[in-house]
C-alpha cells in the first residue's frame, strides 16, 4: 500500500535534544518522503515557540503540538485546539504552590515558568528552549490565555498522584529527559497525539491507513498503534515497541533514514 502522510515525533526521534542535532540522514529521509508525495507532520509535545531550532531546518505541512492539544497548518493557522479548562488550570497553580513543585505552562505560542524558576530553567536548558521561555512571578498569564499543557517537576510525586486521582479529566506522562527530579507532562485525559493527528487526517480527507508514524515515548503509543505503519525508534522501551509495526535504530544511528528506506523500498515493490 502506498502511504501518503508521515507523522514524526521530535525529541528522541527526529531531534537529538541534548545537543541540538538533526542528522543529515534524517533530513535526506524527509526529502525522500516528500519526493514520494508524502505530507510531513510534526507530532510533538512541544509548543510552537519551542520548535524554532527544528523549523529552521525542517519544513512541515502541519504541526500537531503539545501532545495533540494544538494543531496548525503549514502557515501556522489554527485547525483545532483542546485547551485545559480554566478551573483545572487554577487547581494546578494551587497544587504547585502548596507542594513547592516546579511548574511550567504551555500556552500554544508561549511558555511561562510559574514556580521554582531554576529547576525549570535547567530542565528547559537541556531541551534547548531557553530563548522561548518567560517567567511570570504574578502567576496570572493563564487567566488571559488558553493553557494546553502543564509541566510539573518534583522529587516526590505523591501529592501529584493524589491530585491526578481527584482530576480524572487530566492525565500525566513521564517525560523521558535528563533532569534533577521527576518531570511530568499534564494534559487533558482525552487529548493525545492521536487526537491531534485525527484532526489533520480529517482536514486532508485521509484515514489512519494512509499514515506512517515515528516515535519513541509513551505519548507516541496511540499514534504508533493506529497508523498504517508505526515505527518505534531503537531507544524506545519494549512497552512502546509493542505498539509499533516495525523497529528501527535510534536517533543517533540513522533511525528515521533506515525506516524510510525500508518502507519506500517495500512500497516500490508492491
Automatic annotation (TrEMBL):
GO terms for cellular component: cytosol. The keyword Hydrolase applies. The keyword Hydrolase applies. Keywords: Hydrolase. InterPro entries: Cof, HAD-like_sf, HAD-SF_hydro_IIB, HAD_sf. Coiled coil: none annotated. GO terms for molecular function: magnesium ion binding; phosphatase activity. It comes from the Bacteria. This is Cof-like hydrolase. It comes from Faecalibaculum rodentium.
Amino acid at each position: 500500500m502506498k502511504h501518503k502522510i508521515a507523522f514524526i515525533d521530535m525529541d528522541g526521534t527526529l531531534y537529538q535534544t541534548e545537543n541540538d542535532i538533526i542528522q543529515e540522514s534524517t533530513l535526506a529521509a524527509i526529502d525522500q518522503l516528500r519526493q514520494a508525495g508524502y505530507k510531513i507532520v510534526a507530532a510533538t509535545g512541544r509548543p510552537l515557540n519551542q520548535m524554532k531550532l527544528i523549523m529552521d531546518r525542517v519544513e512541515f505541512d502541519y504541526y500537531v503540538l503539545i501532545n495533540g492539544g494544538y494543531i496548525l497548518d503549514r502557515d501556522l493557522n489554527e485547525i483545532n485546539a483542546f485547551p485545559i479548562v480554566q478551573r483545572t488550570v487554577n487547581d494546578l497553580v494551587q497544587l504547585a504552590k502548596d507542594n513547592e513543585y516546579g511548574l511550567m505552562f504551555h500556552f500554544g505560542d508561549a511558555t511561562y515558568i510559574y514556580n521554582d524558576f531554576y529547576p525549570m530553567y535547567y530542565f528547559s536548558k537541556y531541551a534547548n528552549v531557553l530563548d522561548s521561555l518567560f517567567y511570570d512571578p504574578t502567576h496570572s498569564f493563564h487567566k488571559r490565555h488558553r493553557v494546553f499543557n502543564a509541566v510539573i517537576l518534583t522529587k516526590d510525586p505523591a501529592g501529584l498522584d493524589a491530585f491526578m486521582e481527584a482530576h480524572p479529566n487530566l492525565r500525566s506522562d513521564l517525560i523521558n529527559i535528563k533532569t534533577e527530579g521527576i518531570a511530568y507532562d499534564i494534559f487533558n485525559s482525552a487529548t493525545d497525539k492521536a487526537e491531534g493527528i485525527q484532526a489533520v487526517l480529517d482536514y486532508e480527507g485521509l484515514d489512519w491507513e494512509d499514515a506512517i508514524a515515528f516515535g519513541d515515548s509513551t505519548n507516541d503509543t496511540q499514534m504508533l498503534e493506529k497508523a498504517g505503519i508505526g515505527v518505534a525508534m531503537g531507544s524506545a522501551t519494549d512497552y512502546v515497541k509493542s505498539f509499533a509495526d516495525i523497529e528501527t535504530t535510534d536517533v543517533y544511528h540513522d533511525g528515521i533514514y533506515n525506516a524510510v528506506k525500508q518502507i519506500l523500498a517495500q512500497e516500490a515493490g508492491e
